[in-house]
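cron nightly-structures :: item 1 of 1
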Amino acid sequence: MHIAQFIKLEIIILNLLKNQDLTSEQIYCILNKHFTIIEGELLVSLFFLHENHLISFQTVDDCFIYHIEEAGLVRYTTLKREYQNIHQSMEALLQNEKTKIQ
């Protein structure tokens, strides 16, 4: 997985957990509807988010249920803002495809 893919996965996971607590299987099923994803990539991302105190989990019936922490909300807001800035810049560039470079 490339770092850019990791960051995209990070923002999507945080967004999903912002709305509700989920198991890794639930997250995988949601993501798999929209993207090609390897379960191992998801588990690595969840581990990273947990190790950085952005999410926590509790075990219920041998399932990990993930929850976003305050630091995760802050990280989500930062990533979302960065994504929006990149998206706006890309749109501006695409609108001006004929811009001449001097």
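cron nightly-structures :: done
Strands lie at 22-23, 55-60, 63-68.
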